[in-house]
User: What shape does this take?
Amino acid sequence: MDELLALLHTPSAADRELVRKAYTFAYEAHRTHTRFSGEPYFNHLFATARALAELDMDAVTVAAGLLHDSVEDVGVTRETIAREFGDEVLFLVDGVTKLGELKYRGTSRHIESLRRLFVATSKDLRVLMIKLMDRLHNMQTLEHVPPEKRERIAKETLSIYAPLADRLGMGEVKRELEDLAFQHVYPEEYRAMSALLKESARMKEPLLETVKQELRQALVKYGVQSFRMESRIKGLYSLRMKLQRKGGDIEKIYDMLAVRVILATVEDCYRALGIVHMLWRPLPGKIKDYIAFQKPNGYRSIHTTVMTPKAGPVEVQLRTETMHREAQYGFASHLSYKETGSTPDRSEKKSNRIWYHYLIPSLLRTPSTPNSHTQTTPPPLWVSELASAHAGGASEASEAFMREIQDDFFSHRIFVFTPKGDVIDLPMDSSPIDFAYAVHSEIGDHIAGARVNGKLMSLDTQLQNGDIVEIETKTSARPSAKWLEHVKTTLARRHIQQRTTKRTAEGAS
Ligand code: MN
Assistant: This one.
């Protein structure tokens, strides 16, 4: 417990008490509960909470991390959680429980909708963070899970959780989730990639050391005072994806090993870029200034690939300490006060909450494409507006504004499943008719009946979030003009109008 309390950042007495209480409660509640490995279940709860504390999440989130499986797995009532820990902890635990009910069911067509569903369901980024840390620990211990379950969990991790971590700018978490899942989803490819990377590292690492040595001397010579260097080895899964994009040609991958220089200031980054290019000729088209144009997920660094006589093409990455932290922990790094050294007061804590709410709608926008290297989209206006709201302490008005954006999305969409598990994203109050047309116009045109969650229902039923909808079709069935009263989507409306007017015209002739 002391380990966990020590990780809390500037906790108040109440914060410490909350975490202490959650720790004891979770320990007792899961006392007889074990994991597949046979170890106490509490180890999982502790690992989740510790990871959250390491990300500087607040005490409420850490406490919810300890309690995240207590409602679902050991039958603790929601009332007990609310009474003992308050509504905010209950809200987070509830959110995590709801996310647990959404499962990837093996189809890749609607992955993007499923990701959106995850985000929409979590409503608060802290819920997503708990779920991510929960998943990270489950992935770290996946070898104990029965093989048939293992593959589903690993696939779900690759298609849902790793991209979400990426969208949150959490490079470290993304990479770890991907590489842990990779070995279970594509074991043979995983072995091949490991061998490839190992061989390349063995060959290139000593050469890279001389490159680093030369660069170090040059930086000092030209007056860059304070910096540190590290080698970065590419993640195995990201190597696999890049290799696929490059048509399997390993010679075209220049960043398997990269030199990373972490500098004191932005000016130093640009000065270092000049020095790097003075030493070695850069490869055309390989200079990427993500400081001037940050990636959509907030990533900032300068990348350049240079031709070195000793080690061939080498990627050099330049960034400040702050950028380095952001690249690892993403949005969570914005919640930390360690760098400024100031203590969070109430208004800062409040504006944190706005960050969570604010980022949710941003996650629901178009995701970054796998090859986002070429994107240089500046942050949209609302991001800078948020940044200023954040800096100046949040006003009531900006908080209301955030709520509006969020409500707008949540109150107008629902997500329902096909029997196979595809997610269909529909406007609120949609009917099985809308659903049928969203799946395929042929299905819409031949609806004979609809089952919602296994029960036969009328076609004007208003669908709810999470419903599983099955449409029965008959070749002789035709759309009826009456259906127009029960549809919300223009797609369905257009088809029905087309079909019914055509028939009337035919009947008249
Ligand atoms: Mn869990």
Summary: The CA atoms of residues 117 and 199 lie 41 Å apart. The radius of gyration is 26 Å. The pocket of manganese (II) ion is lined by residues 44, 68-69, 134 (CB under 6 Å). The chain has three domains: 2-183, 188-328, 411-508.
